[in-house]
Description:
By secondary structure, this protein is of the alpha/beta class. It contains seven helices and seven strands. Strand 1, helix 1 and strand 2 form a beta-alpha-beta unit.
Amino acid sequence: MKILITSNSCWNIYNYRLDLIKFLIKEGHELIIACPKDNFFKKINKLNCKFIFHKFNNKSLSILENFILVINYLRIFIEHKPNLSISYTLKPNIFSSLVSKILGVNHITNITGLGSFYLSGGIKRILYFLLFKYTNSKKNSFLFQNKYDYRLFLKKKIIEKHKGVVLPGSGVKI
């Protein structure tokens, strides 16, 4: 199976997703990782997977910058034709799930914590919840790191109960 993983940094991939990636490669899956390049690239470059680097500003609310990010994801999806897309972190969660929905690709959205965007409140939070609700599709599943975020998504009617699962954690070896 061809799997596309999107995240906001190589640092995130190295520190939290490395074991998952190694497992998926060992199981014979073809992996493509799309994220901005940073100092941790050298540490993950040795993995047997394809890397696609693209720039984006995590904090930007610019319509133009976010539109360019969607176009970049659209290009990546069309060129590489993944069977499954897995996303981590806020912007990749929203925009790669949007592209997955448009192209009919199975997608797993990982909510590791709502963090600063939720605490910021106001129009920004409303906009993000609307985007999460819009990008949800029949082919999208949600994995949550804590029950509070899961309950909030249920309460806001972003997902139905059967679409989300609370995990005991990911990315940290105990």
